[in-house]
Amino acid sequence: MRQAGRYMPEYRKLREQHSILDLCCSRSLRYSGTLQPVERLGVDAAILFADILLPFEPLGLGLSFAAGEGPHIANAISRQSDVERLPAVNPETDLGYVLEAVRLARAALPADIPLIGFAGAPFTLASYAIEGGSTRTFTRTKTLMYQAPDTWHLLLGKLADLVGAYLTAQARAGAQALQLFDSWVGCLSPQDYRTYVLPHSRRALALASEAGVPVIHFGTGTAPFLEDFAGAGGDVLGVDWRIPLDEAWRRSGESRAIQGNLDPAALLAPAAERDARVRDILARAGGRPGHIFNLGHGVLPETDVGAVRAVVELVHGG
């Protein structure tokens, strides 16, 4: 979960001189972003350094990152004609620099450290594209969803096909597992998830599964509709800290692997409290096969690297 980030001094040093897009597009910089956390933290897998919004550039949506303000989408989607104008995207050519990063990272990593590729899920990507950036209310997103359902489904259908092809291309380039991030889907009611999102997530995950590598389906705030979220597909279900791990595993089906679910804020707690929470998650997993210990979302910028390393060592020792 966002292994590289502002909590790492090495990463902060890079960001003082380069934008996030520079880091993603520069061969040497994106290489560093993937490898640095593995070397520093001792984790069991590497996560490709990229951004979920990179497909917006070949889609013609216009992507930039303002300092301290997050992403900005210049050509936000508001009507059906906007969706109809979206071009077809070929990941091999239009996102070739990402695939090159996969090949470079895979060649540089030790043989026993797998590389995880990733992409944003159709709903999360659509929300960014409609809102023009980050949001807390999802007002424009839900307005389009409710008032123009045909346009909504057209958009998510296009994004599902793009994401599925993009993930498959990452696997062909050398990624040994894939993760679909639905970071914003928790803003929805269970009914809205089933009606407006589930079919498109299922499509993206089905396409990604054709690559023949494990696929992780991750979302935040999914507890109210966890069974439906799990039903969308994926070999591994990623859950956040808002639901106990054992309950999430029981509800989603214990034959499926599960990923999670330490609250990132727990890394800011005193060591005794932090370690108690880690041990509680491990106890809930009960030593059963198929548990990937992870955070419930990305590492917070205020986090001390030593705290992350301590959790890794505790999990390895537990």
Please tell me about this protein's structure.
- This protein has helices at 9-17, 20-25, 27-41, 80-84, 91-94, 96-108, 122-131, 139-147, 149-173, 190-209, 226-231, 245-252, 271-285, 305-317; strands spanning 46-47, 63-66, 70-73, 115-120, 177-182, 215-219, 236-238, 257-262, 291-295.
- With 318 residues, it is α/β, with parallel strands linked by helices.
- The strands form two sheets. The protein has a seven-stranded parallel β-sheet. A two-stranded antiparallel sheet has the order 2-3.
- It is globular, with a radius of gyration of 19 Å.
- The mean pLDDT is 93.
Quick structural summary:
By secondary structure, the protein is α/β, with parallel strands linked by helices. The protein has helices spanning 9-17, 20-25, 27-41, 80-84, 91-94, 96-108, 122-131, 139-147, 149-173, 190-209, 226-231, 245-252, 271-285, 305-317, and strands spanning 46-47, 63-66, 70-73, 115-120, 177-182, 215-219, 236-238, 257-262, 291-295.
